[in-house]
Predict the 3D structure of the following.
Amino acid sequence: MRPAVEPRFNFLPSVPAGEIESTHRPESFQGSPLIELNSVIDRLDLENMFEREAPLHVDLGCGDGSFLCALAQRLPDKNFLGIERLTGRIRSSARKVANLDNVRLLHIESSYAVRYLLPAGSVETFYLLFPDPWPKRRHHRRRIVTPDFLNSVHTALVKDGLIYIATDHFDYFLEISETAGSTPGFATADVDVELPSSKFGVVFQQKGMPIHWLALRKISPVK
């Protein structure tokens, strides 16, 4: 084993190292939009993956695929990559996007994919909608938005690229805003686009719960 591999596998807390290969391509997904990874340490060949060149949008934690499917249909000139670690949700996403030529899926931890798989300067827009807030204090370390995560997002974004973040959890929103404010290379942007609703977004809206949005634009290289 090469020394560099072990810490990268540690970035996949839900995937035992010995099951990496089968986790990325269950037999039931053959012939689906789910991408087979021949390596979990090499950057993605996006042009080969989509069989065309187009701006890339990435849905981090794409869930059941409702948002991903609706946005990909709305923007057929963009490539869309949905990333989801939970098997049941990735199956649902695969069914929803099966007839969309501009969508691919990865069954993997979002933070790992951003840090290790997406090429630098390859993503026009990220969407991080309703990430797990891990409300118990002892679980806060599991929250996805950290300085390291945002630095990885920054590297993957094109010049002036965006990440949209939404959460129903106000304390988590404040933490995300504080983390973003202390991470160099980003400026707050207006949330001036009308995006489709996600499954969780619909649930929270029906309950009358406020949804907190943050848009960040890449403005300069991280020093």
Observations:
- Residues 170-181 form the longest helix (12 residues).
- The radius of gyration is 17 Å.
